[in-house]
Amino acid sequence: MEKLLNVGCGTKIHPDWVNIDMVSYSPKVKVVNLLKGIPFPDNFFDVVYHSQVLEHIPKEKAAAFIKECHRVLKPNGILRVVVPDLEDIVNEYKKTLNENLENPTEKSKSNYDWIMLELLDQMTRHYNGGLMATYLQQPKIVNEEYVMSRMGYVGRNFKKGNLKMALSSVTMFRKAVRFVLHKGFSKLFWSKATDVGNFRLGGEVHLWMYDRYSLAQLLSSCGFTEIAIKNPVESEIPEWQKYELDVKDGIVYDPTSLFMEAKKCKPNTLG
After folding, report:
1. φ and ψ at residue 104, rounded to 5 degrees
2. Residue 201: pLDDT band by 50, 70, 90 thresholds?
3. Which pairing describes strands 257-264 and 73-84: parallel, antiparallel, or unpaired?
4. 85 near 211, Cβ under 8 Å?
5. Backbone torsions φ then ψ of 235, nearest 5 degrees
6. In sequence order, what DSSP letters do the residues of 32-61 get, joined into one string?
7. How far apart are the first and last CA of the chain?
8. Which of 168, 58, 181, 64 is nearest to 123 (CA)?
9. Averaged over 143-164, what is the pLDDT?
10. How does DSSP classify residue 83?
């Protein structure tokens, strides 16, 4: 039976996988300080998967994190990474920009406003939910269909009136980093600036963004080979679709994301 590791799982868990995260609200999730590595032996897992995690790790620490994924994989093991796709967001930004320069409509203006939030809000926000939360709480969203198409499974929960769940795309991993970074911090000199700094280091904001070039370069530099772009339902992982980690009830969790897989090469036994 294959050994499968789901890193920074949040609420996306499966009983066939070892599910780990910074905090856990389920007995099926093991609490692990991912900033200190992955606490399993070398060459232990057949598959390592993480979604919407890498962009919340400081760029200077990203390679160490990916190398940990490489270390715990067996030779020929598969790493699957899902991150927000910077290229997709930039292309969508350029499209909506041109639409509004050439033939603006109420919806095109709203689409531009939303894609600007996708591009910048989670990198710049100073409070939970940021301007995205404000946008989603409008009495009427003119471009609701467009926004929901960008939000995927999360958007479906929003349409059902569950704003809290819609905003929970910020996983438990991101929320928990604050505790790790600020454990033991004295509140003696607490201030507004401290609140903002505490939030900024708290795991919710995006600390870097990736496209198909930069993510492939990172994986390659950490020893991975056979790097390939996938889609939500396509994978080298056996029986991938049955786990419903990227697609739930036929709806993609993060439809605008970049899905990429790579392998840990087998050691050369010749010579």
Report:
1. -70, 140
2. low
3. antiparallel
4. yes
5. -165, 155
6. --GGG---S-TT-EEEEEEES-GGGS-HHH
7. 31
8. 58
9. 78
10. E
Q: If you ran DSSP here, which 8-state letter would residue 170 be given?
A: S
Give the model's pLDDT for residue 80.
98
**Does the model's pTM come out above 0.85?**
yes
Residue 160: the pLDDT is: 54
Distances (CA, A) of 241 to 108, 231, 236, 248, 258: 35, 11, 11, 9, 17
Q: Tell me the per-residue pLDDT of 50-77, one tens digit each, with 9 for 90 and over.
A: 999 999 999 999 999 999 999 999 999 9
**CA dist., res. 98 & res. 218, Å (int):** 32
Instruction: Name the maximum alpha-carbon separation found in the chain.
Output: 69
Closest CA to 55 of 205, 167, 180, 202: 205
Single-letter amino acid, residue 268: N
Report pLDDT digits (tens) over 91-114. 999 999 999 999 999 999 999 999
Long-range CB contacts for residues 116-121, cutoff 8 Å, separation at least 24:
118/84, 118/89, 118/92, 118/150, 118/256, 119/89, 119/90, 119/93
Helix (H, G, I), strand (E, B) or coil at 217: helix
The answer to whether 49 touches 80, Cβ cutoff 8 Å, is yes
Name the residue with higher pLDDT: 212 or 158. Answer: 212
